[in-house]
Design brief:
The complex is a heterodimer of chains A (507) and B (591).
Chain A (H helix, E strand, L loop, with lengths): L1 E3 H9 L6 E2 H8 L3 H13 L3 E13 L1 H9 L2 H11 L11 E2 H7 L5 H12 L3 E4 L2 E4 L9 H10 L9 H9 L3 E13 L1 H9 L2 E3 L1 E2 L4 H6 L6 E2 L18 H15 L3 E2 L5 E3 H6 L16 E2 L10 H13 L14 H5 L1 E3 L4 H8 L11 E10 L11 E11 L4 H13 L7 E5 L4 E10 L6 E10 L1 H7 L4 E8 H9 L14 H6 L5
Helix pairs in contact in A: 1-2, 1-3, 2-3, 4-8, 5-7, 8-9, 12-19, 14-18
Chain B lengths: L2 E4 L1 H8 L6 H11 L2 E5 L5 E4 L10 H12 L10 E10 L9 E8 L5 H16 L8 E7 L15 E8 L17 H7 L1 H10 L5 E6 L2 E5 L3 E2 L11 E8 L2 H17 L3 E9 L9 E4 L5 E6 H8 L5 H10 L3 E4 L6 H6 L7 E6 L9 H12 L19 H15 L3 E2 L5 E2 L1 H4 L30 E2 L4 H9 L8 E12 L7 E12 L5 H15 L3 E2 L8 E11 L2 E9 L1 H6 L6 E7 L7
Parallel strand pairs in B: 4-7, 4-12, 17-20
Antiparallel strand pairs in B: 1-3, 2-3, 5-11, 5-12, 6-11, 7-8, 8-9, 9-10, 12-13, 14-16, 15-16, 18-19, 20-21, 21-25, 22-23, 23-24, 24-25
Helix pairs in contact in B: 1-3, 3-7, 4-7, 5-6, 8-11, 9-11
Classes of the chains: A alpha+beta (507), B alpha+beta (591).
């Protein structure tokens, strides 16, 4: 019979007639106790050993218990000090002052209470209004608690000691009790037979090594079983930021729908951010409360022709029947540089031809880029967030084309049943707020703003075709698709690494 | 977005639809784009709507829109006006900054509490929107019987009041909510409304003032006098508006007059006589301006925009249901065709627009009206039959692939704010502002920051990553973090004056982090991009001396790599070593 080495050693150490505790088997077999235990149970499973279990109770002195073996139990010290101070049995005549005795017994703190409580309990004497008398018959030298404690500290057997005494030591926190299961093994008949017939060591290995492979030795070895159900150590790989994953997903969808990505400055002239969009210069959203103005000088250069055309659109309107705004307009105001409040500034730069030259229809462009709003910072609003911006330019576009594009786009994210609510924007007409149903809650939520760019926007840019456009906060889409409740967990330096590491991937 | 508070009983009254429940009204108004927001403390219904239809800032305007929606009214309606009896004289002393005036006389008003409240609400909301907080236009409504026509103006054969400019410390009057005679200057200091609007006239040499025969009675745009205060007993009103733009105040005036007319009042014209040498000097205007404007819009544009085929008579019907009038323009296929009901590409409509429609700037605003009347939700979405080729920008592809390599190397990809503070990017990193090291550059400052935590654009990204480490000391280590992100510096040679770029930044926070760990990953990154990395020693105050190197890629110094200085770590409550790097993304490819 071939058995793994630990099993052979344990089998050889076991006896057919005497129950041998496992720790003794381990010592005899020169194995770690855990390895010996495992071998014992494996041998039992193979029917070669019988295992007996016995519950035993062990007591071990605590640190406090150990100190009292040398210095004496507090009540004993109190008794001796009282006797030394001349205390007798009579409460009236022989009593001594407690303070004096405690001092003489060298007791302090908790030890005083312990001493007094046990002094009374053991019948060493009486305590009455601060005076102490002793029972001369008492014999602290024959105290079973002290004896038992001394035996524990000396590591002697306490089998004969009364359980009540041991329990008292435990309750006084002078000793700790441990319930133990002691296992012993005996050879079964099959075990004896196996030994008589001869047991050989089968080689088992823990790890498959390059040497085993190259030498061919792997063919002769037995692989030790692992506990394949045990937890493995935690491993943390690098993950893509969950919001970035959402941005990449949106980018994938839009590229798939034929959109080209735009790129451009975060800090830009108000001209590109607002004036090109036909936002009057006295529009409330252009006040300093909403925008992040920068302390830099105004933009160096704007296309002069375009500036003239934009100014004219603001002042006079566009076309024979167009009206302007009756609002002040100055180029100086338009040149001021601020952080963009929307990426429509990029759309303006592209549509004007400033970015990649004049564009012929049809065209589709998009960006998923950061914008900045001087708004409240809370669980659903950030000062910086990602805006999905997109537009389509073609010869003829209708609001039906706009609706069809969004139905297609949002369907990719599981948002169906899009509703279009007529809306007002200074730069689009008609304009629509988009509402969609949350895929899990069924709630109707605003998911974007859209429209057909006005003639007053397109005409100055030199665009002679229809352009439909829309904007949407990426964070809103990400919160919808990931179920995040506080956007600040996602974005910024307050980000919780545990959250980012644990975020479920999306696809 | 503007809100309007509406008494549903008034709305039922003014529309003549007693049978409508509150819920019916809410549904009908949602169809007009007015969203129910809840009830006010006074039990009024509050609605929010887009800031285009400012004629709906009162219950009268909302009722008018509903009557068109219900089909009770069609086409343009203009109130009749009586001939003028009053002249508003604008004399040469009027402040140059606020030269324009308009107004009307309204007779036979019947103001109960609700009507008066509605009028005051409309006035305040017009101030807040078109009036740009009274800067562009301010409305004064007076009890006409308290005003005594000025007879000083000899060539006036009727009554008149005078809009002028006076010394701020000259004449006195008793303003509303006061019982003392105050000069305009005193109003600005001592009256709460005066203090609120003091900024509007702070730079004026002369205070705007309106006089009648009895003297000063209004100090626009700040406050009216108590003498002419309107109450529920008032039966005749004088309305005046002053402002910086004639068109704007004329439209505000029209909206007010329409509202009062809807309650049965009679509008009487006034003459505005501009004396003196201002732009308007010498002109005489008859107001209120109820001129019905006209714009042309082609049948083709309507069909193209809505994506549906329409008959001409249907288009005209839709215009009329929107409170507009439309006729097929002369010279087109003409009446025959209009009657036959077809519309072709050449058909053009002349559309009449009532004076309260301040939102119509262009014919396409009329197309929007047709669409709303038709019902945008009747339109079937269709995917545009237009083929284009999609693709990403080079910079975005470069960023994405760099992030990909970094996460492959075990870095957690981060996304930090671009706004931060000088304390974070300089002081706490032990970098002297202006030092000639990475991160020492002059940051762009935000002039009116939201909070002191966000006052600049970050000139480098390493401080953001160290802050994330600082905020996550309770989380499991190692913490290997990276960001490919935006940084910016002041640079007057750039058109926008802001040099924007992307940096690649990584940190390794672990009990045994060393320079070698950071360089090993930097090497791997450079190998992926096929660029040559050299790391000559350098000194950087955020890193340990002798353990920092310049990141030189293909011969150009583009960043720094090293072990972060213990002083910086302790500053951020970090109790283990951190190695890191930061360099320009453009070193890896075309940005």
């Amino acid at each position: 019979m071939q058995l793994p080495e630990p099993q052979v050693a344990v089998l050889n150490a076991a006896s057919a007639t005497e129950e041998t505790p496992i720790d003794r088997l381990a010592a005899a077999a020169e194995l770690e106790p855990e390895a010996a235990t495992r071998a014992v149970f494996e041998l039992r499973d193979e029917g070669l050993l019988e295992v007996a279990e016995r519950e035993t109770v062990e007591y071990e002195p605590t640190d406090e218990g150990r100190t009292y073996v040398d210095s004496g139990l507090p009540e004993t010290r109190l008794y001796r000090a009282a006797v030394g101070a001349g205390a007798g049995a009579s409460a009236d005549e022989d009593a001594v002052s407690m303070g004096q005795v405690i001092g003489a017994a060298d007791l302090a703190g908790d030890a005083v209470d312990i001493a007094l409580a046990n002094f009374g309990r053991k019948g060493y004497g009486n305590i009455d209004s601060g005076d102490l008398s002793v029972d001369p018959e008492a014999d602290p030298e024959a105290d079973p608690e002290a004896d038992a404690l001394a035996a524990l500290v000396a590591d002697e057997a306490v089998d004969t000691v009364d359980n009540e005494v041991l329990d008292r030591l435990v309750s006084r926190n002078l000793a700790a009790r441990r319930d133990r299961t002691e296992r012993s093994a005996t050879l079964t008949d099959a075990g004896v037979t196996a030994l008589m017939e001869g047991v050989e060591t089968a080689e088992t290995v823990d790890r498959l090594t390059p040497e085993l492979l190259t030498s061919g030795e792997w063919e002769d070895v037995e692989f030790a079983d692992y506990n394949v159900e045990a937890d493995a150590p935690a491993v943390q790989g690098g993950t893509t930021h969950v919001l970035r994953q959402a941005a990449e997903r949106v980018t994938d969808v839009l590229v798939g729908m034929g959109f080209q990505e735009m790129d451009g400055p975060h800090a830009d002239a108000d001209f590109w951010i607002n004036d090109c969009l036909f936002m009057p210069q006295d529009h409330p959203a252009r006040t300093h409360w909403d925008r992040f103005a920068l302390d830099t000088p105004p933009i160096d250069d704007l296309p002069a022709d375009l500036v003239d055309r934009v100014e004219s659109a603001h002042r006079e309107g566009v076309g024979a029947d167009g009206d302007g705004y009756h609002s002040p307009w100055s180029e100086e105001f338009a040149r001021a540089v601020a952080l963009r409040g929307h990426t429509t500034s990029l759309s303006m730069r592209y549509l004007s031809g400033e970015r990649v030259g004049d564009l012929d229809p049809p065209r589709r462009f998009f960006s998923v880029e950061k914008v900045y709003r001087n708004d409240t910072l809370d669980a659903t609003h950030l000062l910086e967030f990602f805006q999905i911006e997109g537009w389509v330019m073609a010869e003829d576009l209708s609001v039906r084309d706009l609706m069809g594009t969004f139905v297609e786009f949002y369907e990719q994210f599981g948002i169906t049943d899009i509703q279009f609510k007529p809306h007002y924007n200074p730069y689009t007409e008609p304009s629509f707020e988009l509402f969609g149903r949350h895929p899990t809650t069924g709630e109707l939520i605003e998911i974007g703003n859209s429209g057909m760019f006005r003639d007053e926007v397109l005409d100055p840019l030199g665009v002679d075709h229809d352009v439909m456009a829309w904007g949407l906060a990426l964070e809103r889409l990400a919160m919808l698709t990931t179920g995040t409740e506080d956007i600040r967990d996602l974005h910024g330096t307050l980000a919780d690494l545990e959250f980012l590491r644990g975020a479920e991937v999306t696809y | 977005m503007p809100v309007v508070d509406i008494d549903p009983d008034e709305l039922r009254d003014l529309t003549g639809h007693d049978e409508k429940s509150d819920d019916d009204l809410k549904d009908d108004l949602f169809g007009l784009g007015l969203e129910f927001e809840g009830e006010t403390d006074d039990g009024l219904l509050r609605f929010e709507f887009g800031p285009d239809r400012l004629d709906r800032l009162s219950v009268e305007g909302v009722a008018r829109s509903l009557r068109y929606q219900y089909g009770d009214d069609r086409g343009v309606r203009v109130p009749d006006t009586n001939d003028p009896d009053f002249t508003f004289v604008v004399d040469g002393d009027v402040p140059d900054e606020r030269p324009y005036v308009t107004g009307a006389i309204v007779r036979g008003v019947d103001l109960d509490d609700a009507a008066l409240e509605s009028l005051i609400q409309l006035q305040e909301k017009l101030h807040a929107t078109m009036g740009r907080k009274r800067a562009k236009g301010a409305i004064g409504i007076h009890d006409l019987l308290s005003i005594k026509g000025d007879t000083l103006s000899e060539d006036s054969d009727g009554n008149s009041i005078t809009y002028t400019g006076v010394a701020p410390d000259g004449d006195t009057f008793v303003p509303l909510d006061s019982d003392r005679e105050l000069t305009p200057a005193e109003v600005l200091h001592e009256h709460s409304t005066g203090r609120t609007y003091a900024d509007l006239v702070a730079d004026y040499d002369r205070a705007p003032a309106i006089y009648d025969e009895l003297g000063l009675f209004s100090f626009p745009p700040v406050i009216n006098g108590r003498r002419t205060e309107v109450s529920t007993d008032s039966r005749e009103l004088l309305i005046e508006l002053t402002g910086t733009d004639q068109w704007t105040i004329d439209r505000m005036c029209a909206i007010i007059c329409y509202a009062l007319s809807a309650r049965g009042a009679t509008i009487e014209d006034v003459e505005i006589a501009y004396e003196g040498g201002s732009d308007a000097g010498g002109r005489t205007l008859r107001r209120p301006d109820f001129e019905v404007r006209s714009k042309s819009v082609s049948h083709d544009r309507i069909e193209t925009m809505l994506g549906v085929d329409l008959k001409a008579r249907d288009v005209i019907d839709l215009f009329e249901r929107s409170g507009l009038d439309a006729v097929v323009a002369d010279g087109d296929a003409g009446d025959d065709e209009a009657e036959s009901g077809d519309g072709d590409a050449d058909t053009t409509y002349d559309v009449s627009i009532p004076p309260y429609r301040v939102d119509v700037l262009h014919p396409l605003d009329l197309v929007d009206d047709v669409g709303r009347a038709y019902g945008f939700d009747e339109l079937e979405p269709r995917y545009p039959d237009v083929g284009t080729v999609g693709g990403r920008h080079e910079r975005s592809r470069l960023e994405a692939v760099t992030r990909n390599v970094l996460t492959g190397l075990g870095f957690e990809d981060l996304l930090n704010f671009h706004m931060t503070s000088r304390g974070e990017v300089h002081d706490r990193m032990h970098v002297e502002p202006g030092a000639d090291v990475l991160g020492g550059g002059d940051p762009v400052e935000i002039t009116e920051p939201y909070s002191e935590d966000y006052t600049i654009l970050r000139p480098w990204a390493l401080p953001s990553l160290v802050m994330v480490l600082e905020n996550n000391t309770h989380r499991a280590y190692p913490q290997d973090l990276a960001e490919v992100g935006f940084v910016a510096e002041r640079d007057d040679s750039v058109n926008t004056r802001v040099a924007e770029s992307r940096h690649v930044t990584g940190v390794l926070a672990r009990t045994d982090a060393t320079y070698e760990d950071a360089k090993a990953r930097l090497q791997a990154l450079c190998r992926s991009f096929g660029v040559k990395l050299e790391t000559p020693p350098t000194a950087h105050p955020s890193f340990i001396d002798g353990r920092a190197a310049s990141v030189v890629i293909d011969g150009e110094a583009v960043g720094v790599v090293g072990e972060i200085h213990p002083a910086v770590l302790v500053e951020h409550d970090l109790e283990l070593p951190v190695a890191g790097f930061e360099f320009e993304l453009s070193a890896l490819g075309e940005e």
